[in-house]
Amino acid sequence: MNTQSQSTINSIDLQFDRKHLWHPYTSMANALPAYGVVAAEGVELQLQDGSKLIDGTSSWWACVHGYSHPKIVAAMQQQTAKLSHVMFGGITHRPAVELARLLVELTSPKLTKVFLADSGSIAVEVAMKMALQYWQGKANTDKQKILTIKNGYHGDTFAAMSVCDPEGGMHTMFGELVTKQLFAPAPQSRFDGEFDPEELNEIASIFEDNHQQIAALLVEPIMQGAGGMRFYHSDYLAALRKLCDKYNVLLILDEIATGFGRTGKLFAYEHSQIEADILCLGKALTGGYISLAATMCSDEVAQGVSDSPAGVFMHGPTFMGNPLACAAAIASIELIKENQWQTQVSAIETQLKTELADAINYEHVNDVRVLGAVGVLEMSSTLNTAELQQEFVNLGVWIRPFSNLIYIMPPYCVTAEQLSKLTHAMKTVAANINPSTNDIAFISHG
Ligand code: PMP
């Protein structure tokens, strides 16, 4: 194929995109420009004009091994040549079985049953349905509420929305269609600070007063992600497990963003040495190569579900256990099992702490937080994502701020030099926020 036809195939009609194609959390009437990516390799995204950006997002926590990893690509190519999809009702296949075996092996001993769903939000829906059916199996129809903590984020579908921060504003417009759940105050003790047991008083009294209605407590372990990028104390999570045991409430952990090494442990619950009754996984499950999520549960929960009047678990998506996605997940987990991630994540953590520390002295930086391969600058005011986006692109990086947060969670294979470029860009932008307008004082117009 000659170069011209090759470039025609690669070219992206950005005008058509802007006019017709919805992007996450955007307006079609007032669409913002999107950057056309034609390829990605390692930690770099290649734009249509040939320029390359260092990715600080892992495409929203997912691409932990970077892009175009030969082992994952080969696994997917081989699988798609054999069996890209087949229904899961009454049929099984090796990729699903082997993936389930790996998940059972890697997660805590109690988690023995695997439900393969298609996205993180659905994994959360599945977890909530499991909890409700479990209590029906115990002949308890009172336990129909989910307790959660503020600042949480668990997805955009209706049940998932019901456990997102009620004051966060993301989902408030859906009114009566979103079930009312129970919310406790967000944890206050920082991961790297002292734990104050007093902060449990309010959630403890919610348990005490409402446990007869509470089917499960659902939380993101250690890191509250989209609800504010906060890292809370491991003793807080351990105390939540104890409260669940005391009041006969299931514990659902949403490890969709934290799973597979991001916080420095394979799963964030390991910081607190606890086990979940139900665990949600997604994002990095396939190394970010294709959508897949998993909800795992204990024998006890699975038995309760089977004892419910339905006798079966009432969920079964068309693409359940998709073999291509399972093959990608197996290849990704095999890379995780080589254990390089531990050294990589701990090197990233050290470098982030060193390079971001002095940003706390900037006029408009309120807080600097680092845990594992996540670095956060919390600004004093809400940022204009679209304008900042262009600044980051001009600086050669892909960083997507939201609310008042400039944060990164790069692929684990990021080099020290690439990481420095990311932290430099974060600090350059943070240092140039214009205090009078709350806007960026433009740094570069390249
Ligand atoms: N839970 C958490 C903790 C998440 O971060 C996300 C996605 N940002 C979800 C659930 C929802 O996952 P998905 O976008 O794949 O539906």
TrEMBL record:
Pfam family, one: Aminotran_3
Modified residues (N6-(pyridoxal phosphate)lysine): K283
Binding site residues for pyridoxal 5'-phosphate: G120, S121, D254, P317, T318
InterPro entries in the cross-refs: Aminotrans_3, Aminotrans_3_PPA_site, BioA, PyrdxlP-dep_Trfase, PyrdxlP-dep_Trfase_major, PyrdxlP-dep_Trfase_small
Keyword Phosphoprotein carried by entry: no
Keyword Transport: no
Gene3D superfamilies: Aspartate Aminotransferase, domain 1 (3.90.1150.10), Type I PLP-dependent aspartate aminotransferase-like (Major domain) (3.40.640.10)
Molecular function terms from GO: transaminase activity
Transmembrane segments: none
Catalyzed chemical reaction(s): (8S)-8-amino-7-oxononanoate + S-adenosyl-L-methionine = S-adenosyl-4-methylsulfanyl-2-oxobutanoate + (7R,8S)-7,8-diammoniononanoate
EC number: 2.6.1.62
Biochemical pathway: Cofactor biosynthesis; biotin biosynthesis; 7,8-diaminononanoate from 8-amino-7-oxononanoate (SAM route): step 1/1
Site (Participates in the substrate recognition with KAPA and in a stacking interaction with the adenine ring of SAM): Y25
Residues at which substrate binds: W60, Y153, K283, G316, R400
Function: Catalyzes the transfer of the alpha-amino group from S-adenosyl-L-methionine (SAM) to 7-keto-8-aminopelargonic acid (KAPA) to form 7,8-diaminopelargonic acid (DAPA). It is the only aminotransferase known to utilize SAM as an amino donor.
Subunit note: Homodimer.
This protein's name: Adenosylmethionine-8-amino-7-oxononanoate aminotransferase
